[in-house]
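Recall the central idea of this unit: under ordinary conditions, the amino acid sequence of a chain determines the structure it adopts. In this exercise we apply that idea directly, starting from the sequence alone.
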Amino acid sequence: MDDEAAGTVEVSMDDGVALLRLADPRHRNALSKRLSDDLAAAVDSAMARDARAIVLTAEPPVFCAGGSLDDLLDRPYPLSELYAGMSRLTEAPVPTIAAVGGPAIGAGVNLPLACDIIIASTSARFDPRFLDVGIHPGGGHLWRLAQRIGPQGAAALVLCGDSLSGAEAAQHGLAWRCVEDADLEATARLLARRAADRPAPLVRRTKESLRRTTRLSDPAEAIELELRAQQWSVEQPEFVEAVRRIRHEIAERARNRKITSA
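Accordingly, the structure predicted from this sequence is:
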């Protein structure tokens, strides 16, 4: 495993899977400008090192305590600059998986929302809480939340101050699944490994198609988009190799059945 420290974010590489760990537990991994910038740099570093999948996790006990209140009160930087890390996660061309253990609060919920898949542990809690400190949600929070759990769910969490445990997040579609704390990172790594073991160009093209498909409202446009990508895929050498391998496996099974029945 290849490790690298990037200030408040640690980066580990393991055969194409990048593990980005928020590592500022003294400040409850608060989304300060420094941590946001470090996260953006960590994503860039992972991609520069040929990451084929990314897992985002955090030093316990808090996943992310949200935006730095000092930065929000004094505003030494434009608000838009506080979202660099989240934006880089969103723009990553490879599959991104958030492994959320402990509370994700306020803008801290934006980080898992920026990922393709959220795995929560039993200790996780998703608590937007923006309005409790007198601030409007930012960073595309409302849109991403509504995409996951619908307008009613977003209203309950943001307007009414509800929160979801890890198990509830999985039930409502905010998380893909909820696992025990001890299994959280391993579960996220397993999904990342499956993605990383597939042909990298095909995974990237499929993720891009998925992104574009969610913005379409016409099924015909979605079919055309996928057709172009599928045509590209069958012209790649990986497709020919996969078909050859499958045919060989089928032939081997047939041969073994003949031997067994003889």
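The chain has a mean pLDDT of 94.
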